[in-house]
Amino acid sequence: MSIWIGVLGWLSLTPLRAVTVDAPGYDEYQLKAAFLFHFAQLTTWPASAFPSGDESFVICTVNGDPFDGSLEKTIGSKKVQGHSIKVAHVQRAAEAHSCQMVFIPALQRGEMSAMVNDLGNLPILTVGDDESFTQYGGMIAFRRENDRLRFDVNLGAITKSNLNVSSMLLSLARAVSTR
Fold first, then answer.
1. 3-class secondary structure for the chain?
2. pLDDT tops 60 at residue 18
3. pLDDT tens digits, residue range 58-110?
């Protein structure tokens, strides 16, 4: 448990800046889990994303759990916009329509594009594990750059889905596109 507190504490001191992927004691997906939590904190969803006021904030992963349980451990009992956080692992994007954030692993380009299109204009923050994810309409794409974990943002896709991200998130992104 203390490793997860350490990961979140470490990232809170260097919020979303480029983080060395091979940081001692952390694997890449532990770092990505902490980033997802920070992305959620720096994004605002419309009230319509939560049909009832007490519903959980749901983070979904597509095609299993690439985090190997570290996403649940990182999230713990934290909250987003006053909602407790729940993690769900689904097989297809169509099963993620009730999620507020969806993590899509690196897939073949056609599959990735189809998943992004399926989530369409829904108020769902899509985060991809492929550096070209934003070119296919995804909202945030992780990328490795000189052994550091970075991310790009597609502000056009975020706006189209009626989400708002903070200027802090945009300022920390490696690149921001508006298409």
1. CHHHHHHHHHHHHCCCCCEECCCCCCCHHHHHHHHHHHHHHCEECCHHHCCCCCCCEEEEEECCCCCCCHHHHHHCCCEECCEEEEEEEECCHHHHCCCCEEEECCCCHHHHHHHHHHHCCCCCEEEECCCCHHHHCCCEEEEEECCEEEEEEEHHHHHHCCCEECHHHHHHCCEEECC
2. no
3. 999 998 899 999 999 999 899 998 899 999 999 988 899 999 999 998 877 77
